[in-house]
Structures are given as structure tokens and as C-alpha cells.
Specification:
Helices cover 16% and strands 41% of the residues. The chain is α+β, with helices and mostly antiparallel strands. The radius of gyration is 18 Å and the shape is globular.
Length: 239
């Protein structure tokens, strides 16, 4: 995935009110940019980090610049724009990078499904082969790294994430294929675990989902100022 326009950068001063961040540009000016991440962003918004942003050039927007990437003080790259995750996974499927999700002729997004009024991020199927069960793919963006190469999800208690796991379990019980895909948007993460210390209920439900046939996998991204793309499967540790 190439960024629509060249990214610009500045030094992060602070992230606040969930949707805003202040940065200092190279000429000393301060700029407030939009933060497209409603999560806690643990480890992703340390003052002094380099923040890479996209300038829409749209004067009608109150905050025309959108924060996309963080270059941490340790040298890791993180994509903090959670809206990118679904597109990254879809692109990787279409480019045959995610080999486990090949063999379908159609990819649809935001399809209604389940028992709790949900929408699945990606639905794979082959209408010309109705005997082939559809595959429901829920995408989760992983950016929290706490020690070494360990990445964790979620970074805050996630009732919505728990709901999605229940829906995936239900789909496997109906005979469909269900996949939880961790989109690892942090170059320093080498393996992923459920964040039991943050949301133990999510960890328990994730293990139950895996035991009932939900496939759990993680792919990590290459991240640079001009491009981000998934390129490598990494382990998910549930034990």
C-alpha cells in the first residue's frame, strides 16, 4: 500500500483528547494533527518520537493533517492509523501474500453477519461454488509491544473485541470458516499473545474460540514513509 501523498514528519509533543496530537516541525512551528486511533496507544505516543503525517491539503477540514506512522525512540516503526488494517489484509490476500486465505473468487467488506448485529471486516467466498463454505475474517490491529519482541492485543479492555470472538465462534458452529487475523503494524513485534494482564476475559474467550475451530493468525507489516504492506506470518502464542 503506497500512501496517497508523501508523508511529512515532526517531533511528537503530546497526544490528547483521543483524536488530537501536537507535533513540532523542523522549523520550530507547532502543528495540531488528527489522530485516527481511538485506543489507548500504549507505547505508541511517547513524546520525542517522530510522527509521520499526511497533509490532505483540504482547507475545509479543521485539522487537515492526519497522523499515520510513529518512528519510536528505539527505531521501530508503527502504523497508528487503525483504518489501514482492513485494507492491508485485503491487499495481502489479493496479492497472494496470505497463502492461508487463497482459493476464493470474491472478497467483500463490511458484510452483515452473526447473532449480535455485527459486520465482518472481510468475507471470502466463491459464488460459483456454493458448496465451498464462506470464510469470515475479523481483523485486529496490533501495536502494543511491552518486552522484547512480544506484541499484545488488546491494549485496553475490549467489549467489542469479545463480541467479535463470540460471532466467530457462532460462524464455526454453523459450518463456516472463521479467522481472527492480527494485523501487526509494529516492526519490533515478533510474536503475538492475548493481553491477559489488560483484558483477561478477552484472553479466555480467544482460547475458547481457537478450541472451537476459529483460526488465529498474525501477519507483520513492513513500514516505511512511502509504503506499508504485510509480508510475514509470525506466531500467535495462546498457551
Amino acid at each position: 500500500m503506497k500512501f496517497e501523498l508523501p508523508l511529512q514528519s515532526g517531533t511528537l509533543i503530546r497526544r490528547y483528547k483521543r483524536f488530537l496530537a501536537d507535533i513540532e516541525l523542523a522549523d520550530g512551528r507547532e502543528l495540531t494533527i488528527h489522530c485516527p486511533n481511538t485506543g489507548s496507544m500504549l507505547g505508541c505516543c511517547e513524546p520525542g518520537s517522530r510522527a509521520w503525517f499526511l497533509d490532505s491539503g483540504n482547507p475545509s477540514r479543521k485539522y487537515p493533517c492526519t497522523w499515520e506512522l510513529v518512528e519510536t525512540l528505539e527505531g521501530d516503526w508503527i502504523c497508528i492509523n487503525t483504518a489501514r488494517a482492513n485494507a492491508l489484509v485485503a491487499e495481502a490476500i489479493e496479492n497472494r501474500v496470505i497463502v492461508e486465505l487463497q482459493g476464493y473468487s470474491r472478497l467483500r467488506r463490511e458484510v452483515r453477519y452473526g447473532q449480535e448485529s455485527s459486520r465482518i471486516d472481510l468475507c471470502l467466498d466463491s459464488p460459483e461454488h456454493p458448496e465451498q463454505p464462506a470464510c469470515y475474517v475479523e481483523v485486529k490491529n496490533v501495536t502494543l509491544r511491552e518486552s522484547g519482541g512480544l506484541g499484545y492485543f488488546p491494549d485496553a479492555v475490549s467489549l467489542r473485541g469479545q463480541k467479535h470472538l463470540r460471532e466467530l465462534i457462532h460462524m464455526t458452529q454453523q459450518g463456516y470458516r472463521a479467522v481472527l487475523m492480527f494485523c501487526v503494524a509494529h516492526t519490533g513485534i515478533e510474536r503475538v499473545r492475548p493481553a491477559d494482564h489488560i483484558d483477561p476475559a478477552y484472553g479466555r474467550l480467544l482460547r475458547e474460540a481457537a478450541a472451537q475451530g476459529v483460526e488465529v493468525m498474525a501477519y507483520r507489516a513492513i513500514i516505511a514513509p512511502d509504503e506499508i504492506r504485510l509480508n510475514q506470518r509470525i506466531p500467535v502464542e495462546l498457551d
